[in-house]
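Example (one chain per record):
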Amino acid sequence: MAQQFYGWRIVAAAFITFGIEIAFFFYATPFFYDYYRQAIPGATRSDIVLGFPLAALLTLWAGPVFVHRISPRKLILTGTGLICLCYLAFGTLATSLPVYYLVWLVFVIGYIFSGPIPHQVIISQWFRKKRGTAMGIAYVGVGVFGALVIPFVAKPLTEALGFRQALLWMGPMVLLTWPLVLFVMRDRPAELGQYPDGDPASAVVTQIQPAPFREILSTRAFWLLALGSFCSIGAIGAIFGNMKFILEDQGFVDQIARDTAHARMNLVILFSSIAGRIGMGWLADRFPKKYVMSVTYFLVACSIPLLLRVTPEQYHYLYIFSVVFGFAMGADYMLIPLMAAEQFGVNSLARAMSIILPTDTIGQTWFPYFVALIAETYGSIQDPNYVVALLAVFGAAFVGAIAVSLLPKYGREHEALQRAGATR
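Predicted structure:
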């Protein structure tokens, strides 16, 4: 009797582990920005937003040094442990900007270890023909848990206990991922005597030798992918990192009204992202990934001007923007490892992403800081103006879409499959 393919259990586990890690690290974090600003004496909006980009810049070394040398499962266990400790530190120690920034350094290392890279590598090892669908399902977990974490965890805990106690309760929740990582996930199908997709013909993708860092960095495809993802994810990060401040600038001046609008916006964005992940993942299994990625990145850019229409008097634009932006955002992140695996081979994915992910994180984190500075420049610290800043974000997203549209249609993995006669 043939052994049942184990890969879909890997996807189910990643749905939860990846979803919890990203929800707590990325989506819940901006909810507390205005609370940090009130709790840390003398802190401004840009001071608070600076924590993430500063840490991302100072931890660029962590990915290339560690992620391709250590088992993805061990990385996830270590990273989630660090994230838990940082939640506890934010809740107890972050009473000054230096301490706040120090906690961010550890927080970002936890993200590099436990976030996209190890999950992308595991799924890419288990799938070839259905890699886009599998990756899309795993990323749906990000949308589901991301949509739930603010309205059903962060907001009610903060209202009931205060924001510091909420952080202390939320930290240990990240460790719910550990049993799945320990007892369900496996790094490669060979550990269970299986093949990617359960198909021996797909084993050719795991036999492609890892490309040296120098070879990866020498390709035009690497720099186009790095630039395109840097700009597009930077634009997305700028929106999320300044969301509550943008809402305040657009007329949501009451704290409760702003928290409510923010929670609803996140809920719609993240549920809309589910459609983007599943739909674009399915398309990426059937059409050249370059075309699917180009459409997605142009859609990110086109959604940004809609945010300028969101006001308390035009509340319906909150939902229109959230649907369009969420759909594109959902596919945006997911398509990067699919394209990297196609261009450089699955065994080079950890190396390529260990450079691309930290670079993207620089964009994701520094864009919000510069957007806050631009808004303050065209207004004031007390009364910023985000119109010019959001137009700059639109421009960056458009540049990212152009860069992706210039990528080669196929790469190293497709060439190896052609030589082996295993293309679909």
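Caption: The radius of gyration is 21 Å.
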